[in-house]
Amino acid sequence: MDIPLYQEDCEFADPFVSFRGVSRFKKNLDNLGSFMRDVRLTVTAFDASEADGVVQTKWSFRCELGLPWRPSLSASGGTKHVFNAQNRMVEHVESWDIDPAVALKQLVRPGKRQKKTGGS
Q1: Do the Cβ atoms of 106 and 72 come closer than 8 Å?
Q2: Which among 11, 35, 37 is positioned nearest to 24, based on CA atoms?
Q3: SS3 letters for the chain?
Q4: Pfam families given for it (predicted)?
Q5: Which residues of 59-85 are buried (b: 16+ CB within 10 A; e: fewer)?
Q6: How many Å apart are CA 116 and CA 66, to the nearest integer?
Q7: Strand partners, 45
Q8: What domains, with CATH codes, occur in the chain?
Q9: For residue 119, what pLDDT is reported?
Q10: pTM recorded for the entire structure
Q11: Residue 22's Cα: distance from chain center in Å?
């Protein structure tokens, strides 16, 4: 029997956006994931409370986006996962240790490995 990990109306939130629904989350991952290169994710802390149905993680993340200017993204933060009595996730809430404006700047700043073409 296939039991999905996420409740269909699970809440997903980060410093930029909050929404409900697994289908939108999957679409977001498909869109962004196709651009991510050299991904490094390190889980630095993990705490689970079975009684409360909550899993808290701390992590650091780094990747390069496969865009023409090769921006590098880097952040650390945490994710709170809340599960219901059927062990399905009902909340997936990220917190970042970086100002969202700084994260946006990373998206537009050319990466170190960007190839230089032409010029003087």
Answers
A1: yes
A2: 11
A3: CCCCCEEEEEEEECCCCEEECHHHHHHHHHHHHCCEEEEEEEEEEEEEECCCCEEEEEEEEEEEECCCCCCEEEEEEEEEEEECCCCCEEEEEEEECCCHHHHHHHHHCCCCCCCCCCCC
A4: DUF2358
A5: beeebbbeeeebbbbebebbbebbbee
A6: 16
A7: 58
A8: 6-108 (3.10.450.50)
A9: 47
A10: 0.82
A11: 14
Per-residue pLDDT in tens (0 to 9) along the chain, 120 residues: 445 899 999 999 999 899 999 999 999 888 888 899 999 999 999 999 999 999 999 999 999 999 999 999 999 999 999 999 999 999 999 999 999 889 889 989 998 765 555 444
Asked if 65 contacts 107 with a C-beta cutoff of 8 angstroms, the reply is yes
Q: Retrieve residue 63's tokens.
A: 């990747």
